[in-house]
Write a structure and sequence with these properties.
Length: 296
Amino acid sequence: MKRFSEKRGTLISVVDLKQKKYRAVYWSFFAVMVLLVLICLVPVLWLILSSFKDMNEFLQVPPTFIPKSFHPEKIWEAWQSMHFGKYYLNTIILAGGSWLMSIVINGLAGYVLSRLKPKGSTMVFTLILWTMMMPTSVSMVPLFMTFIDFPIFHFSLLNTYLPMWLIAGANAFNVLLFKSFFDSIPISYIEAAKLDGCSNLGIFTRIVVPMSKPVIAVVSIFSINAAWDDFLWPYLVLKDTSLHTVMVQIFTMKTTGYPADLHIIAIMFAIIPPCIIFMIFQKHIMEGFSLSGIKG
């Protein structure tokens, strides 16, 4: 294995690229990466470009990749006719609550397991890891029954966003992510705060949280994307159509008589926000993985 090139930041240096065998390896990997990028981007680009086609061109066989004529006015007309602003707002409310629960509840759980370590914390951590190995379908029915008749208080959580928020607040992966990051924080900071008379909650809010921006950014992106993409639980819980999220509304459009081209535009409305969020914050995702000790 060749030494790491300081100038290029790669395993193959500029000198190595002058040799045929290394140049062949380099361009082979480059071709594979380009192919993977095309596989990921072409469907999305085709979807976006198809949104600007008229109905005749949209139904044309074989389909055209680049529209022969652009109709950008269709985007605004679709937004108004489908009332997508309301569904965007509903999804933002759902994602905001899920984000808050993911940060606060999972963060506190990770801190307790990482630093406070009360009696029984090892067993609790083992149970958390065990839940990650359980099939999602196993817990669906008990959870749904719980949401229909919430224990102790005996009221229904249907037609509210609380079930999705509670599920986000009990995310085993986020707890593990927080715990792994908190384990890497030097214990000297926490001991110094204790000597100054700071409480455990004060240590968490004043010392740990300011040092945890990378992992908070990672959990924020994961929780917001998961809430935006979630279909099953909103579909099961939100029976009131005025509370529907973007994904649920796209699914129910097939029974409302909208033409096929509007379905494509609706899907475009759904995929653009997560793509923008990922492109803006992808650096924080990689930093959070490296700092938390989780290798991709």
